[in-house]
What does this fold into?
Amino acid sequence: MFRNQYDTDVTTWSPAGRLFQVEYAMEAVKQGSAAIGLRSKTHVVLGCVNKANSELSSHQKKIFKVDDHIGVAIAGLTADGRVLSRYMRNECINYNFTYESPLPVGRLVVQLADKAQVCTQRSWKRPYGVGLLVAGLDESGAHLYYNCPSGNYFEYQAFAIGSRSQAAKTYLERRFENFTDSSRDDLVKDAITAIRETLQGETLKSSICTIAVVGIGEPFHILDQGTVQQIIDTFEIAAEQEGPAAEPDAAEQSAAAADQGGSTDEGVAPMDI
Amino acid sequence: MTKQQANWSPYDNSGGSCVAIAGADYCVIAADTRMSTGYNILTREYSKICKLADKCVMASSGFQADVKALQKQLAARHLIYQHQHNKQMSCPAMAQLLSNTLYYKRFFPYYSFNVLGGLDNEGKGCVFTYDAVGSYEKVGYSSQGSGSTLITPFLDNQLKSPSPLLLPAQDAVTPLGEAEAIDLIKTVFASASERDIYTGDKIEIVVVNADGIRREYMELRKD
It folds into this structure.
């Protein structure tokens, strides 16, 4: 109730020392569909839940490749996210052109944060309504950063943003200590499991989630639906059967299930552009 | 009152020759690896060939500093294209981009004589040849650089390029097989390096076909 007096302009402080427009922008991030990120010493995995407006439309693209060594997952106003990805791509290309080496992730997130800050201090602008999970590799190893509309950025071992992200965060908090030494495949499995937590009961299919990986010796790329479905099947089946003796059967069955899973999902092809 | 002449030139000729030949399902692009200045050799192992896209390779002779700058420009533009279109640039598209990039500097040109080679959208070999300011043409074969005056007549004799004025329209690509085209390239460079002082040391040969891109080398006279 009180807030309404001081929330018209982004350049108006409230008596309590808050900028409400910036906080409302962070609210927009919480309304977007979930995105999660986790990292080990050598790899970073990003995952997101794909929302589609209706069965007829294509899925929103929420994960963008920025460069061979950097990728970003967004939550919130995807249009703002698209514009910021274009900015990030340009910065990487220009840096590479000048210095013949990849732009360090730490530098990029600072530039991004400064860009976001500008929008919190101009009366004719509005803050970007998107949170970005930036995954990247540089000389000092694998990194995961979160950039928010306020212009702040933080580095994380693992994080989740967007709607129902608390469920994913709880799962990640339980498991994060193992992530540093995790193998790439285990990291991907953890990412998919974290996404499943945000779905809360809804069936996990490769058509509603997207996973991307970047690592040492592995340029940033989005995993294709077939691969993701196979991984989903391995742990659905492992959950049904008890004991490690089930593993060889799980591998066989997952191949069969993946074929079925693949064909039913063929109809819902995400638009890449 | 004589006109004052420039006492410094922004350009220098690094010498060398480039050749490209288009085949039915392949394209061969080759260049020697000698970089010179005046009557001296700067290095015997400099590559004039640059891969611009999956099916598109460019060889350039002239002033290598300008060549390097041009290659970097095109590589950056190609990255932007990939981000926007989610696919690699085709060879004809890259050909147009190169022409535009060169003409952009019409009044302070890239001192770069280019030959672009690769596969077009149907998988057929294509070669595009340029002047320094971007005038270009799709041809069946081409040669640029210090040895081009020696190489081009030989290629004309061997590859019998039909006149574009002839009817019915004839295909410019050679019916030669890949191995024969490579052999022709080696012969042509060996001859050029006999008489052109700027051509020699080694040839770098790049072959683009449906399997991808591969590279081979051949030694030439070192004198």
Q: What stands out?
A: The first helix of chain A runs from residue 20 to 31. The helical segments of chain A are 20-31, 78-99, 105-118, 165-175, 184-199, 225-240, 247-265.
